[in-house]
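ARCHIVE CARD
Drawer: 12
Card no.: 0347
Subject: one protein chain, sequence and derived structure
Cross-reference: see card 0346
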Amino acid sequence: MFKNKVIKWFKSLNYKSALVYFLVIQVLVLASAFFLPMPIVPLLRFIFKEEGILRETFEIVVMLILELITKFIVFFAFFKNDRNLHFKEFCKSYGLTAVLRLIFSTIFYFAAWSAGMTICLTGNLLGRLWIDNDIKTMKDVPFWLYLVTFIVFEGLVCLIAFLSSKLAAKQRERIKQELMNNKETN
């Protein structure tokens, strides 16, 4: 019985959407790792001249905000343009995407271009704070710390997706009401 439910669940997944989400997220990861922070990180380094926890924390916060805003914009577009896309269906496909991202990130040990700059920087900072102050490279950070950071960040991404789905539904409803009111006046 359990086996039948698992098979039925696997058949209900939309693999095409999961692959599209994976590719879109990886493009966003590359953009947010290399291009989006270009004007902001030098400004932060100008403000915080000395290296240290405070500067790294602000860099992580800025990177987190950048990544979440870009993902919100993309998810909002997905929900706005596809009336049939519901949050539950999105989560099923995005769950598979998260697993693919985890495998991809694990292969490359959570590099900035595979897992994302926020995950890489956060894992590195927490590794130095909690485990060993002499951590110099990504490989020195324990795998479990990156794994926890990855899971927390993906949870935030799901919250962003939920918010974007609700806002897209409200915007579609508002536009529908405006069209209905406009139609009645004509």
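Annotation on reverse: The mean pLDDT is 84. The two ends are 58 Å apart (CA to CA).
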